[in-house]
């Protein structure tokens, strides 16, 4: 049986069709899990342990790793070990051989976690998958970075027990999901705004014909950029940004929890000669788990400001009694760099599409943001906009693609 896997920057999900019904793989009680892995010690080499070959087998990797919110909670509770958040965001960057091996190991654990959960739920040993990929991965090497990212995922999937995997661009997957909702043939523009990337596809969808992807565009920015920007605007001044002589890039490194090299660089800085109260707060932020707590606070604040004009953030873990009041304007200004870049991409799309689409289909976790949603509306004011499932639209389309692969190979 083929499954579809949305290996996301922020959240990961999997799905397939069983007896014609869309079936989401569940992780505990949820249809997705935060893309985070915790190892109590070093990241173990998954090739040096016994892999599980049946859905009923006990898997040794679960003794080594925790996933999702459980991973974050364990890291915050124990204060040591290794928490890797958003490993997908690292796949396209230049790395030496040792770092690459570690990244492959991390991706292997994530993919094996998915495969074994699917095998248990579906009652058969899942060995094949269609995996979503952005049009352009976050990368320091251009298109070579995207090629490297696909190679790493493919290598990790093989170690995780998949006999074969194929890849489908995420906006194309979202298009397949939308295709199922359309009784008549039409053109549509798919706008998928995720945690790490923003992807767009022009497609011919609906009716009895197969969906046809005409053109895709991509931007290697997404919701995690909003979190970093909000942290820089609302929280980092309380730690001395633009007040002390500490370089700005230190604060960017602290806010970038999805970037392991930046996190390591921040933790090795020496703040002994910074004036109080900044010194103590920065040193507290260097403690294990503190940057993760700060990022979670930024994420919660971002979500709260989607429906409220003001929210309060507790930073007492950095300095007892420290808190920050954040207003909607803070969120608007934090989102502005991303929104401007996204609108430039959408303007480029509008200049290059082959015809005016009948509808805009909006999906992806970051599409929940009213600021982002309104920016898309402003880019296409005369075209009806249809909102898809922000969390599960892409994986639902990947399940469609996986089912077609099953039918082809049968």
UniProtKB/TrEMBL annotation:
InterPro entries attached to this UniProt entry: ATPase_NBD, Hsp_70_fam
Record's keyword annotation contains Phosphoprotein: no
Keywords noted in UniProt: ATP-binding, Nucleotide-binding
Coiled-coil residue spans: none
PANTHER family linked to this entry: HEAT SHOCK PROTEIN 70KDA (PTHR19375)
Listed name of the protein: Hsp70 family protein
């Amino acid at each position: 049986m083929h499954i579809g896997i949305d290996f996301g920057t922020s959240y990961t999900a999997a799905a397939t069709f069983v007896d014609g019904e869309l079936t989401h793989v569940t992780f505990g009680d949820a249809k997705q899990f935060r893309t985070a892995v915790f190892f109590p010690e070093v990241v173990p080499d998954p090739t040096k342990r016994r892999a599980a070959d049946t859905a009923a087998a006990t898997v040794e990797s679960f003794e080594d790793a925790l996933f999702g919110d459980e991973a974050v909670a364990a890291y915050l509770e124990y204060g040591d070990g290794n928490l890797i958040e958003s490993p997908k965001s690292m796949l396209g960057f230049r790395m030496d051989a040792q770092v690459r091996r570690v990244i492959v190991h991390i991706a292997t654990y994530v993919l094996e976690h998915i495969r074994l959960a699917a095998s248990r739920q579906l009652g058969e040993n899942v060995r094949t998958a269609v995996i979503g990929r952005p049009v352009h991965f976050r990368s320091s090497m251009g298109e070579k970075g995207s090629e490297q990212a696909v190679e790493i995922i493919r290598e990790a999937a093989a170690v995780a027990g998949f006999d074969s995997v194929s890849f489908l661009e995420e906006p194309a997957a979202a298009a397949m999901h939308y295709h199922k909702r359309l009784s008549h043939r039409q053109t549509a523009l798919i706008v998928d705004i995720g945690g790490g990337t923003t992807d767009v596809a022009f497609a011919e969808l609906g009716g009895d014909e197969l969906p046809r992807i005409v053109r895709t565009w991509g931007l290697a920015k997404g919701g995690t950029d909003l979190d970093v920007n909000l942290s820089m605007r609302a929280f980092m001044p309380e730690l001395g940004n633009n007040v002390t002589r500490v370089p700005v890039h230190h604060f960017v490194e602290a806010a970038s929890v999805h970037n392991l090299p930046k996190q390591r660089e921040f933790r090795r800085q020496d703040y002994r000669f910074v004036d109080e109260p900044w010194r103590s707060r920065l040193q507290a932020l260097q403690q294990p788990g503190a940057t993760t707590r700060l990022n979670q606070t930024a994420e919660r604040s971002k979500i709260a400001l989607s429906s409220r004009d003001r929210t309060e953030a507790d930073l007492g873990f950095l300095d007892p009694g420290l808190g920050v009041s954040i207003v909607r304007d803070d969120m608007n200004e934090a989102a502005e760099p991303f929104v401007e870049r996204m609108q430039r991409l959408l303007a480029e799309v509008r200049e290059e599409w082959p015809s005016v689409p009948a509808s805009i289909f909006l999906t992806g976790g970051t599409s929940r943001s009213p600021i982002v949603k309104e920016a898309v509306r402003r880019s296409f004011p005369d075209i009806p906009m249809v909102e898809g499932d922000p969390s599960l639209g892409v994986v639902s389309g990947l399940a469609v693609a996986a089912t077609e692969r099953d039918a082809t190979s049968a």
